[in-house]
Amino acid sequence: MSEDLKFLIELVKNASLLIDNKFEVKEKGDNGDLVTNLDYKVEKYIIEKIKENYPDFSIVGEEYSSDKQLTDNCFTVDPIDGTINFAHNIPLWGIQLACIRNKKTCAAVIYLPKLDELYYADENGAFMNGKSIKVNELSINKGLYTIEGPENLIRQVKMKEVNGNCRDFHCTAVNFAWVACGRLSATNFIFDTLWDYIPGEYLVSKAGGVIYNNTKMHIAANSKEFLNIIKDKSSISKDERLIITKNN
Q1: Pairing of strands 58-61, 217-221
Q2: For 136-180, how does the pLDDT look when each residue is reduced to its tens digit (9 = 90+)?
Q3: Phi first, then psi: what are they for 125, rounded to 5°?
Q4: What is the pTM of this model?
């Protein structure tokens, strides 16, 4: 296990100890998103520890530095991914971190405290609670998948032509982690928030999966065939967008 990964594992475990059932919820933006005081508390703690141990690395975090871009050496920080689930006492939320060294992701951690599942990866592979994990080998018509983000409903409808087994967990950390360990066959994340997809993409790639990484669309899957199907069905024409607009 690399020193960078050891640092991330210790950091995410200690950060999780700051999370309890006493929290305040506020609206975040105007799209129904939520944030809690613990999101800020956890991210502040993580930032402080990174600066102490990696003073020359920059940080891209959801709450305090979301406007920053990746540098050659940096960390991505998502203090509580799935905050809406967390605020409603649904256990599908997690903390996720990634370390980028010399322009390449070299270590990543996704920790789901309520499920007692610690996922991590480096050049040695992907693991969950100390055991090696791999993506599943299910065919397109049998595997489960998720599609998260804007206009996801019409994308899900189009995917039903080949597979109707879509699930909505509303937590990117869970989605990517579960692709990596084989519970899901694929996930499609239709945003471009770095802290949401970089840890999970690295985890899935080290678990033997395949990745599609493009502006505002990030797909992780158990095979190129499954990835290409989701990519194809996720393209939306102008006419389809007009239908969505009218219905809204």
Answers
A1: unpaired
A2: 999 999 999 999 887 778 888 888 889 989 998 999 999 999 999
A3: 125, -170
A4: 0.90
Domains annotated for the chain, with CATH where assigned, are 3-132 (3.30.540.10), 145-247 (3.40.190.80)
> Could you tell me which of 174, 173, 233, 185 has the C-alpha nearest to residue 209?
185
Q: How far apart are CA 153 and CA 241, in angstroms?
A: 12
At position 95, the amino acid (one-letter code) is I
CB-side neighbour CA atoms (13 Å) of 220: 33
The pair of three-digit structure tokens given for residue 230, joined into one six-digit string: 């989701």
According to the 3-state scheme, what is the secondary structure of the chain?
A: CCHHHHHHHHHHHHHHCCCCCCCCEEEECCCCEEEEHHHHHHHHHHHHHHHHHCCCCEEEECCCCCCCCCCCCEEEEEEEECHHHHHCCCCCCEEEEEEEECCEEEEEEEEEHHHCEEEEEECCEEEECCEECCCCCCCCCCCCEEEECCCHHHHHHHHCCCCCCECCCCCHHHHHHHHHCCCCCEEEECCCCHHHHHHHHHHHHHCCCEEEEECCEEEEECCHHHHHHHHHHCCCCHHHHHHHHHHC
